[in-house]
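Office hours follow-up: a student asked to see two folded examples consecutively, so here they are.
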Amino acid sequence: MPPTRFLRRFLRRRPPSAGRYPRAFGAAVVVGLSALTAASTQAQDVYFSQPYATRLHLNPAFTGLFDDASIALAYRNQYPTLIGSLQTSQLAADYRLRDQRSAVGLLVNADRGGGLNLTRLEAGFTYAYHARLSQDLYVSGGAHAAYGSQRISYGNLLFGDQIDDNGQPTGTSAEPLVYDPVRYLTLGLGGLFYTPNTWGGLAIHHVNQPQVGVASDAVLPFRLAVHGGYKHYFVKTTVKREYREVSLAPTGSYTYQGGSQRLELGVYGTNSPLTAGLLWRGALPGPGNAQQTLVALLGLTWSGFRFGYSYDVSLSRFSRETGGAHEITLALTKFDLIEAAKRRLRRKNYTAPPCPTF
């Protein structure tokens, strides 16, 4: 039985009587489950279903490429029917500097969930430098540095000394369950090439593989992300400062982290101001890699405002029982049309990548 399912069933059981289970029972379960999960898995990053709405998480080279300034919020609730569902919140912001060749960004991620109430908070900065190699070929290179903190809580577990003679929970436990948070520094690099119709990028996160647990092998493995796509425009016009687009964009990505490999194939259709997408995400063949997900998403862009919603429909039996995932993104952007015209005259205007945005 997978460790996640065992933990779910264990937490749903009624409290045992003190006569049947000794005081050390709770501690033994905690130690056993910790050893079991630590032996079979490593800490991993969350996979957002709207990668281009959370693009600083995907690749730091995206910093400052789309707007003069922007701020975005994202929320993801995965496995909502499971006790201890996995919830992720993200704040991202970027600002293009006056030289128009570089930009800085802020990225904050907060993860919480699981039977032991695992919490991870990462906050850091991104930087990107943009260049034009030829008339229709652009490049951007980026870097990311963040400080993180990770901890777990035993507050939702029940120990033998908390159960009275009638089998009812009472009081607090005397078990010494002290777990100080683990703090770490993580570094990442990324690059992006693009033309008016195509794009391709590569990013490596956690290149220093920081330690995030008390065990010597509890590290955050590096995450390799390769992504790209092509956009075909049926309509692309700007009339009276109103941009209109009708397009179709197939996309693809590959992610590797800690022995896990994921492939994602999708297609986005845009008819301004709406964007709709359908993505398939699945683990590549390998031991235990059977999870597959179908993602439906809808985005709206209007007057500096971007909104996106997506829902994950799992194609595997276990994940279907846990309720899929909901994801919401919201962004406010600023783009100065007058300054953009001046940049064109100074030949410092850099076309944004054609990848989907909403």
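And the second, which I mentioned at the end of office hours:
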Amino acid sequence: MFRLAAVLYILCATVLGGGAVTAVLAMRMMEPWQIAGAFIAGCVLALPIAAVLGKKIYTAMKPPAAA
């Protein structure tokens, strides 16, 4: 499950970090610390999202238990 969550983190961090940077730039915040802070916040927010998605996908892929 860890490898799946790691791959999902790469995708989620890119999307959330890029979205946060786009939002910051749309608000005309052009300072480098604001842009970097938005990207870091997006990457941090992606950690629990990737973990939850990885767990849900991993459990959905397991075959049903034989009775």
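Two things to take away from it. The longest helix spans residues 32-61. Helices lie at 2-26, 32-61.
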